[in-house]
Amino acid sequence: MASAAASGRRLVVKLRSRQDTGRAAEGQAQQAQLKEAISAIYASSPTPCTLEELFSGVESEVAAQHGGALHALVADECQRKAAAEAADLATAVALDSTAFLQHVVNLWEAYSSQLSLIRQVFLYLDRAYVVNHPGTLSVFQLGLRQLRCQLEALPHVHHRIVESLLQLVEAERSGEAVNRYLLKRAVDMLSNLRLYEDGVQETLLASATQYYSREGSALINELELAPYLLHCERRLGEEYERCEAYLGQAMRKPLKEIVDRCLLEEHLSTILEGSRQLLAGCQEQDLARLYTMCARIRALQGLRLGFRDYIRTTGSAVVTDEHKEDEMVTRMLLFRKNMLSVLHNSYASHADFAQALKEGFEACLNARADKPAELIARYLDSILRRGSKAAAQEGSLEDVLDAALALFRYVQGKDVFEAFYKRILSRRLLMGRSASMDAEKLCISKIKAECGPQFTNQLEGMLKDIEVSADIMAGFKQYVAARPSSGTLDMSVLVLTSGFWPSYRTFDCLLPTELLRAQQDFADYYLSKHGGRKLAWHSASSNCLVRAQFASGVKELQASLHQAIILLLFNEHEQLSFADIQAAVRLEEAELRRTLASMSLAKERVLLKEPAGSEVGRSDVFKVNPGYTSRMFRVKINNLQMHDSDEDSKKTNEQVLQDRFHQIDAAIVRIMKMRKTLSHNLLLAELATQLRFPVGQSDVKKRVESLIDREYLQRTEHGYEYLA
């Protein structure tokens, strides 16, 4: 080794020995052998030596710092093979989609299998060279990259591969049978080449969007909503299966979004409009399917509003149907039962849908002012008259009452219900038509839980009067039995507290001597026990049991007191004129006409009227009907005056209206006394929270004017001021 100095620098020259030259020649031979082995593997031919020898050659080359050259060698050979494969595919693009894709997959499997064998031979290159040179591809990745580059260099081949995949996927969507295993292998190839994520997925999604947009637009007009929803559900399931089979889990979410958008969101208004038909048919399974889909696309608000509006419109049609007024409560109970079933079974008892149901029933039951409250009171009357029979037909008595009171809960005019229920309850108790006092107490307890004790105070007092009267009558019977001069007349009296019971119109009449004596006996007994009280007799609410002899035999007639005293007149007279009867009983003419009509023109005609006609006249003559017959021994004569007429309903409504005026006045004074000054709008808001019934602005204005006239209030610039 020689050295020389020049310009202050030192030059070192190394001379290669013959041994180094020999090693270089040996390395070149080794690389040539590896190149030949790669070519043999790609040609599926035997390698020039064993794989162990090839592996050792790679190891020695890498150890001799020839890793870069070896890596370049592999890259060149992979590029040559990839170019040949791409050229081969270019010659097959004219094949049909299935055949072409099969050809692609066959080439890919052969290429990847060969590349795996090459990776095994050059495994030491990956472990010793590639890992120490960041950015350098492994042997397998190098082969994949070369194939991808060659495919991208031939756009028509790449496009044909994607087109074939799309055609087969769309064919399967259209119902054709396809080779899913072939599609899976094709997707695997594209995924390994990083082509699937870099463009093919977007193309598949765009194709799915177009397909489902066309299908949704066509089917939404062809199918009913129920089969359309079933189709949407099936389509989503098919896409999930497709992702599981070959498209990959990464496609699951975007395909779900496409199906939801194209089949549901784009036609949401039509779907929600069609939900009315599902609700009308109570198609709970289809509604549950719709609920699940709307929850998935965040459209529950629209479904909720549709549910509320359907209840409101359908219920309003029932409530405002005056021709089927008697069936209103029964129809509304069935309607509510169906809607509750939909809420629980289809809408998962969602709180928002429960609120929609409440809003819908409140709107429809108050679409007709006050009448639903009256009809609910009458429905409860029919239930409590039948008792266990009603329970047997419609479920347990408690369930029936709960359902009816659930409707009552939606009604705003609860004071109307209170007025009618009180009047109907009084008649039911007075006429002994209640099936069970326990049922009466149960119903009132439920009303009390709903409206408070003040609401039911008078109702509870009525029941208590009936119970106390039973004890009083037990004592009176003992009192009568102990008297030696006691008559044979059996009389039962109900002592009622006037403040609890509704007021009825009284009719003065002349009573038989026996009844007058019995009344006096009871009055003497009662006042001896309860000094300082005053008894007022109400004959219109009384009833009697009269034994009558007809040609067909003896009958017991269950009649009102007025009917009974008229029948007793015929013990002494064969026939009587209208004027004779009126002079004998001294009953008001209108009431006398109704009473005579109930015995001569109704079903049980125990009297005959001459001349015949449909109404009772002043010139009519009456006599006992000798040919009267009945299969029953005890016959009830309809008591016409005890039935609510339109006039009675009108009178009750007028009384409710008058009571409302008093309540509005009291509420306004109470509010203004506390607030001192208040604007008109705030006064309306306060009244809405304190009153149990809806109040209109016109009513409030009238009551305010009345209070101003009576100097409770005065007007100010911004509202009203309370005058102490």
Overview of the molecule:
With 724 residues, this protein is mainly alpha-helical. Among the domains are: 18-162, Cullin Repeats (5 helical Cullin repeat like, Up-down Bundle); 195-296, Up-down Bundle (5 helical Cullin repeat like); 542-644, Ribosomal Protein S5, domain 2; 647-722, Winged helix-like DNA-binding domain superfamily/Winged helix DNA-binding domain (Arc Repressor Mutant, subunit A, Orthogonal Bundle). It is built from 29 helices and eleven strands.
SSE topology:
Blueprint: E1 3-6, E2 9-12, H1 18-42, H2 51-63, H3 67-90, H4 97-121, H5 123-128, H6 139-153, H7 155-173, H8 180-192, H9 196-222, H10 225-247, H11 252-264, H12 268-280, H13 284-296, H14 300-319, H15 328-345, H16 351-365, H17 371-386, H18 388-394, H19 397-410, H20 414-430, H21 437-451, H22 453-482, H23 513-529, E3 543-550, E4 553-560, H24 561-569, E5 575-577, H25 578-585, H26 589-600, E6 607-610, E7 621-624, E8 634-636, H27 646-675, E9 677-678, H28 680-690, H29 697-709, E10 713-715, E11 720-722
Parallel strand pairs: 4-8
Antiparallel strand pairs: 1-2, 3-4, 5-7, 6-7, 9-11, 10-11
Helix pairs in contact: 1-2, 1-3, 3-6, 4-6, 4-7, 4-8, 9-11, 10-11, 10-13, 12-14, 14-15, 14-16, 15-16, 17-18, 17-19, 17-20, 18-19, 19-21, 20-22, 20-27, 21-22, 22-23, 27-28, 27-29
